[in-house]
Write a structure and sequence with these properties.
The protein is an alpha/beta fold and 110 residues long. It contains 3 helices and 7 strands; from the N terminus they run E-E-H-E-E-H-E-H-E-E. A hairpin with a 5-residue loop joins strand 3 (31-35) and strand 4 (41-46).
């Protein structure tokens, strides 16, 4: 389990699918955490989500908020002991760590 800086693991909900693809290609974790302009985590986006969106006719210029997953796993600092087990399951590669207001504190990865 690794705590990450948020540069390539986080994108804004107004960023494009193309920007998300670049971030995913750079971070090598097949997904990104999506935040709004207040740094509140509002979703996640995987390369599979992007692939489905493109197959549905979405353009690379489509804003991420139109296709992101809003049913995501997040943890607070007090729940960090659960992170290793969640990541070990293998279907989640990034977990946003949030404060009591949903603001992003860090990203934990496998």
């Amino acid at each position: 389990m690794t705590e990450q800086t948020t540069s390539t693991f986080v994108i804004c909900d107004t960023d494009t699918l193309q920007a998300a693809m670049v971030a995913i290609d750079t971070n090598l974790h097949r997904s990104v955490v999506v935040v709004n302009d207040k740094n509140v985590v509002v979703g996640t986006l995987s390369d599979g989500d992007i692939r489905k969106a493109l197959l549905d006719g979405r353009l690379l210029a489509t804003p991420v908020h139109r296709v992101m997953n809003i049913d995501f796993t997040a943890l607070t600092r007090s729940e960090m002991d659960r992170a290793r087990g969640i990541l070990a399951e293998g279907h989640i590669l990034l977990i946003p760590v949030i404060d009591e207001h949903g603001k992003l504190l860090e990203v934990v990865s496998a």
